[in-house]
């Protein structure tokens, strides 16, 4: 069965009337006329739509009562379809199930394992940290001893001029090293268990102040 829009469009085309001409004659905007012919009148109030259809039908010399009867039938059908349309499914709410908890725990274990493996790989491929706070490079002193203060990895093997020294928990160290007069070179190395070595060198100079020479006595005449 034909729709209201099809009847209107067919009648207008049969009379060879353009939408622009129909707009001027009926004072109904072209956009609304197009919607009436296509059946896109859902956005319009039903009473207003009936008035538009009645005027448009009269302009096209159509039976107004017949057009309104077709409209009521289509209106009722669309309204019934909207009422009986099944409701859209709501978004599923999140539930913390035992399976999800187990999955999260497994993910946590995997993360810890990967972090441990990364740390081991880093230990294998990278030399250990070695920072020397004291003494500074090129420092001068008048003492024959100096404190070497710094930080390295806790499990690293630390040596100063080839002699192994103890590293405190946390990787810090403070060692007293003997010096000789003149230039001294301190070679500090830190090696991890995979043989990767970090090296820092410090050059110090021991300067002993010279005693003032005694004044020459004036010979008696």
Strand order of the largest sheet: 2-8-7-4-5
> Helical residue percent?
40-55%
Give the CATH superfamily of the largest domain. Answer: lambda repressor-like DNA-binding domains
Element string (H = helix, E = strand)? HHHHHHEEEEEEEE
List the uncertain runs: 212-221
Number of helices: 6
> How many distinct domains?
2
- Amount of beta strand: 15-25%
From the spread of the alpha carbons, the general shape counts as rod-shaped
Largest sheet: 5 strands, mixed
For the termini, the CA-CA separation is: 154 Å
Q: What CATH architecture label of the largest domain applies?
A: Orthogonal Bundle
CATH fold-level label of the largest domain? 434 Repressor (Amino-terminal Domain)
**Count the strands?**
8
- What is the name of the CATH class of the largest domain? Mainly Alpha
Average predicted local confidence, pLDDT: 82
Helix-strand category: alpha+beta
Multimeric state: single chain
Task: Describe the protein in words.
The protein has 221 residues and is an alpha+beta fold. It has helices at residues 4-14, 19-26, 30-38, 46-59, 64-84, 98-125; strands spanning 130-134, 140-141, 145-152, 157-160, 163-165, 172-178, 182-191, 197-206. The protein has two domains: 4-83, 434 Repressor (Amino-terminal Domain) (Orthogonal Bundle), CATH 1.10.260; 130-206, Immunoglobulins (Immunoglobulin-like). Strand 7 (182-191) and strand 8 form a beta hairpin. It is rod-shaped. The N and C termini lie far apart (154 Å). GO terms for molecular function: DNA binding. This is HTH cro/C1-type domain-containing protein.
